[in-house]
Amino acid sequence: MEAGASPLARIFLGFSRFPAARSFTDASGTTIVRFIDMRFVAGLVALEQPVRRPQPFSATIRLSSDGRVIDAALGR
Predict the structure, then answer these.
(1) Which residue has the higher pLDDT, 31 or 2?
(2) Alpha-carbon distance 30 to 64, whole Å?
(3) CA 9/CA 76 separation, integer angstroms
(4) Which of 9, 12, 38, 47 fits a disulfide with 24 by CB distance 3.0 to 4.6 angstroms?
(5) Which backbone phi and psi does 9 adopt, to 5 degrees?
(6) What are phi and psi of 19, to 5 degrees?
(7) Mean pLDDT, to the nearest integer, of 32-57?
(8) What is the three-class DSSP state of 4?
(9) How far is the CA of 33 from the CAs of 13, 38, 46, 64, in angstroms?
(10) 71: how many CB neighbours lie within 10 A of its CB?
(11) Which residue range forms the structural domain that includes residue 66?
């Protein structure tokens, strides 16, 4: 998976002891993949719901419809 091979995801996954990933593809073909460390999750996490507070132990990777990384960010 391209998201997991991105530099930010590799760093995050190297740190995370209990990683989990969720993905969502919108109508334009853009895919958002959010990696979280389950040690720091409080309650249910839904990708399509707005994040109410920063989650410093998460990494979000956006991919274009052809699989290229558009951007990557820690937290939100």
Answers:
(1) 31
(2) 5
(3) 14
(4) 47
(5) -65, -40
(6) -75, 150
(7) 71
(8) helix
(9) 13, 15, 11, 11
(10) 10
(11) 2-74
Cβ neighbors of 23 (< 8 A, separation 6 or more) are 3, 31, 32, 33, 34, 47
- Total domains, the chain: 1
Residue 50 has a pLDDT of 61
**One-character DSSP codes across 28-68:** TS-EEEEEEEGGG--S---TTSPPSS--TTEEEEEE-TTS-
71: enclosing H helix or E strand: strand 69-74
CB 29 within 8 A of CB 51: no
Length of the chain: 76
